[in-house]
Amino acid sequence: MKPPAFEYYCPETLDEALGLLAQYGAEAKVLAGGQSLMPMLNMRLSHPGVVIDINRLPDLNRVTVEGTSLQVGALVRHAELEHSALAATHCPILPAAERLVAHLAIRQRGTVVGSLVHADPAAELPLVWLTLGGELEVRSTRGSRTIAPEAFYLGYFMTDLAPDELAVAVRFERPAAGHGWAIEEFARRSGDFALCAAAAVVEWDAARGVVQGVRLGLGGVGGAPVRLDQAVAPLVGAVPEAELVREVARGVGQYLDPPDDLHASRAFRLHLAEVLSERALRAAVRRAQAKEVQGA
Amino acid sequence: MTTRQIRLTVNGQERTVEVEPRWLLADVLRERLGLTGTHLGCEHGVCGACTVLLDGRPVRSCLLLAVQADGHAVTTVEGLAQDGALSPVQEGFRQEHGLQCGFCTPGFLITATYLLEQNPQPTREEIREALSGNLCRCTGYQNIVNAVEWAARKLAEQNSAKP
Ligand SMILES: Cc1cc2nc3c(=O)[nH]c(=O)nc-3n(C[C@H](O)[C@H](O)[C@H](O)COP(=O)(O)OP(=O)(O)OC[C@H]3O[C@@H](n4cnc5c(N)ncnc54)[C@H](O)[C@@H]3O)c2cc1C
Ligand code: FES
Ligand code: FES
């Protein structure tokens, strides 16, 4: 099908965009990469009276290092983060996650921030954002604020963003140099949304040969990604033997409440959550240890 | 409905068109500019048949408003042949029987053209990965991968023949 009629604005300054959002609020939809919004318009699942295209706004297309964070502007496309040298150095899990997002052509257009705001519960980037930690920078004519991922996701496709707010950038916390990381997912076909995905970051205490810090996140197991700080606590300060990692991974199910739907049963999702958690934790530990050997 | 005028470069030619903001680039290419090589299979980004190059990068023309292409360059499958000669990727599809009904072919040609620009010597695995966003109901994909390999060899020969 074709999109319904709407009024189209293509502001060239941030102030103009915020003014339009203040004026039209819930009647308006922001158009970024369009890789989620356009299908909804084509299928007429969405009927905005006004579309505000942000693609011609200046200065939103940069990836930069800001203190302890990697900052990604609202017009940075998936493919740009996938190939960003800064991301590869400071948050290597991000390019790896991007390679799992959709397909070549979708990644040329879809934006990183759009994916975070769209809040598909199976999307890779919200999961990685929650796992790394960070904040979203949001603007409106009322002012600006930052939101942490823990507070941002409220449930299936639901976020804390108000209708008059524009997300201008996201910051991902950079893990310590020499950390290990991994993202593992199960999807029916390459490029599909994951039925379940796991992201892990391991900070390594080389002097003692133990895990110094560890984070594990899971996506596709509920309305929003979840971080399993409690489940992985036994790994902190421990030697990450295969048995211990397996035991921790087997324990994630008690913190989850995945849905039964036509893509996968609840039981299958729980199984995937355990298997992928184990794979991600093991791969992250391996990477952290390999870096120690290289002295990186 | 209010329309607006947009200017875009399509296959090297400057074009001016009057469009409604809600019109998809794919429909404007097909219905207004007569370039029916760009096919619409699903209209929600999944099949890849509508893939065109926007400023040299592959995008879904079913997920782009024509107004968004204002001031940009678009290459469609009609723009791949040069001076009546098939491009190496097109020739590869012909030599290796990379198509049957041909519905999906324009999207594969565009995506493969971009792939070989970025990565002139892809492995079969890399070809499959790059083409995973294009669906074909006929061929079973084997010959499509063969066709891209054929094109990669052809391009390598052409480049080594250059003085
Ligand atoms: C075939 C296909 C397969 C896909 N597979 C995957 C996949 O495997 N994994 C995955 O994660 N994603 C996948 N996607 C979705 C893709 O990642 C999108 O790029 C992403 O979800 C949305 O980003 P966008 O820039 O395209 O946003 P848009 O479609 O432009 O917008 C999406 C929503 O976010 C809002 N929005 C966007 N940017 C802002 C902003 N800066 N401020 C306020 N609101 C904003 C819009 O108003 C809209 O409601 C797929 C898409 C397609 C078509
Ligand atoms: S018609 Fe555009 S991807 Fe199918
Ligand atoms: S050749 Fe018929 S769909 Fe691909």
Shape designation of chain A:
globular
Structural class of chain A: alpha+beta
The chain pair forming the largest interface, with residue counts per chain, is: A-B, 31 and 32 residues
Order of helices and strands of chain A: EHEHEEEHHHHHHEEHEEEEEEEHHH
Shape of chain B: globular
Assign the CATH topology of the largest domain in chain B: Ubiquitin-like (UB roll)
Number of strands of chain B: 5
- The beta-strand count of chain A equals 14
Q: What is the overall pLDDT average of chain B? A: 97
Radius of gyration from the alpha-carbon trace of chain B, in angstroms: 16 Å
As laid out across the biggest beta sheet of chain A, the strand order is 4-5-10-6-7
Count of discrete alpha- or pi-helical segments spanning 4 or more residues of chain A: 12
The whole-number mean of residue pLDDT values of chain A reads 96
- Oligomer class: heterodimer
The CATH class of the largest domain in chain A is Alpha Beta
CATH architectural designation of the largest domain in chain B: Roll
* Largest pleated sheet of chain B: 5 strands, mixed
Describe it.
The complex is a heterodimer of chains A (296) and B (163). Chain A has 296 residues and is α+β, with helices and mostly antiparallel strands. Chain A has helices at residues 14-24, 37-42, 78-82, 85-90, 93-98, 104-109, 112-118, 124-132, 149-152, 229-232, 242-250, 266-294, and strands spanning 7-9, 28-31, 50-53, 63-66, 69-73, 134-140, 143-147, 153-155, 158-159, 166-173, 180-186, 196-205, 210-219, 226-227. Chain A contains twelve helices and 14 strands. In chain A, the strands form four sheets. In chain A, strands 4-5-10-6-7 form a five-stranded antiparallel sheet. In chain A, strands 11-12-13-14 form a four-stranded antiparallel sheet. In chain A, a hairpin with a 6-residue loop joins strand 13 and strand 14 (226-227). In chain A, helix 11 (242-250) packs antiparallel against helix 12. The termini of chain A are far apart. Chain B is an alpha+beta fold. Chain B is built from five helices and five strands; from the N terminus they run ββαβββαααα. Chain B has helices spanning 25-32, 88-95, 105-118, 124-130, 142-161; strands at 4-10, 13-19, 51-54, 57-60, 73-75. In chain B, helix 2 (88-95) crosses helix 5 (142-161). Chain B is globular and about 50 Å long. The mean pLDDT of chain B is 97. Bound molecules: flavin-adenine dinucleotide (FAD) and FE2/S2 (inorganic) cluster (FES) (2 copies). Flavin-adenine dinucleotide binds at residues 29-37, 39, 74, 101-102, 106, 110-111, 113-115, 117-118, 120, 123-125, 166-167, 191-193 of chain A. The site of one FE2/S2 (inorganic) cluster has 10 residues of chain B, from loops.
